[in-house]
Design a protein that fits this description.
- By secondary structure, the chain is an alpha+beta fold.
- The strands form seven sheets. A seven-stranded mixed beta sheet has the order 17-18-16-15-21-22-23, sandwiched between helices. The protein has a six-stranded mixed beta sheet with strand order 3-2-1-5-14-13, with helices on both faces.
- Helix 1 packs across helix 6, helix 10 (241-249) packs across helix 16 and helix 14 (377-401) crosses helix 15.
Amino acid sequence: MTAYLLGIDVGTGGCKALLIDEQGNVVANVTTEYPLLTPKPLWSEQNPQDWYNETIKSICKAIEEAQIDPKQVAAIGLTGQMHGLVLLDKNNQVLRPAILWNDQRTAKQCDDIHKIVGLENVIRITGKPALTGFTAPKILWVRENEPEIFAQTARILLPKDYVRFRLSGEYFSDVADASGTSLFDVANRCWSYEIIDALNIKRSWLPVVTESPIASTKLSKEAARTTGIASGIPIVAGAGDQAAEAIGCGVIDDGEVSVTIGTSGVVFAATNNYRPDTQGKLHTYCHAIEGVWHAMGVMLSAGGSLRWYRDTLCKDEIARAASQNVDPYDLLIEEASHIPAGNEGLFFLPYLTGERTPHADPNARGAFIGLTLRHNKQHMTRALLEGVTFGLMDCLELVRALGTNITKVRVSGGGARSQLWRQIMADIFETEIATVNITQGAAYGAALLAGVGVGIFDNVRNVAHSLVKETSSAMPGPNASIYREYYQQYRLLYPALADQFNAIGSLPGC
């Protein structure tokens, strides 16, 4: 009987369930959505119960789509959004909505961590500064602002690990996801009790951590009854979404680089050595492969900027796309393709939820700059594509500064679907942009890790290299020289506006 592997991606926009067979072929791919809560400006939360409910729905729909016996599922691999804070009480009840990776309320607590532990020590141990999206400053924020919640806390979990708990009844995480908590010794791939104790966080609150391909838990009888999958099948540790996405893109070996344009935008460079950026602008994590790390730059609103733009300013285009039976994104980008590179001087700053790399600034704001009477919505669309790519270029330049010789970048995520956007990336990055045959990203990487964890695949590196193949490429064209000049101007915009962004953030209601 054929065995199937189930990859679960607990994302910000929804939960994806992906089924692959023993040859790595995708046989089902289902996503169900849940809401994002924004109770205050720059706050971002979700209800963990929504994650679990939609995980169960996605699993059942994927099995139905694949038309297989649920008992043929041999293992489950988990991935998902990183950094989120889930607090459980002694009865394993969720104490408050989860605070997410793009939440910006914890600037004070980040400063406190740097004062208590020392900024150099934080970077040395965790591979990066404590940033507003990370888990540790959120714990301190709850202690200071919701003491009644903090007093009831008995467990702390990351988003995908909460789903693991609901599926298995056990508390586990993995080295890649734990690397983003500001509580992890990234060089030695274990919890940093030096930081945990200094911040007066109870060690007992934290889950056991393993390497990513380890089968750490098993499906409970209750979850088996709900899904139809056999009780006791292994649940493999998995990885945070960026490391799992890299597995799904085949970015594994030293010097290999990828760019992912999802809600956030990520530049990801694999490395065989732990070498954190001492300035803290680029961030170092454990990869999902033992003995490998990765340097990462993150912009918080990449595809998220395009989604905001579509939903907020493009109602007419959405209606027109529906009448033509086309995707609204495809319509918007096709119209933007008729605008020349540089948009005749119109820029977009993609800081709609603050920024992380290279400007660790929770008060940074989005902006269109350079508008004239000549500009129309097509200019604005292209400016957004270029602005996000300029922001990713900021991250790529930091990777180059570490000594990485970048000759090619593999791209994934929703943004990689657009031929125009891929060409803009090739021109701005001035390097080859390659797509791969695997488009399911993190969920596919989680399924591969599950296969390694139960011995269907021999190891992560071999299976990823054998299954992930390049399918197309875009080379830098004549617009590269134009963008080189525009990028220099783009780099001056944030420094010129940073003080104003901070002033706006201090206004009433902001």
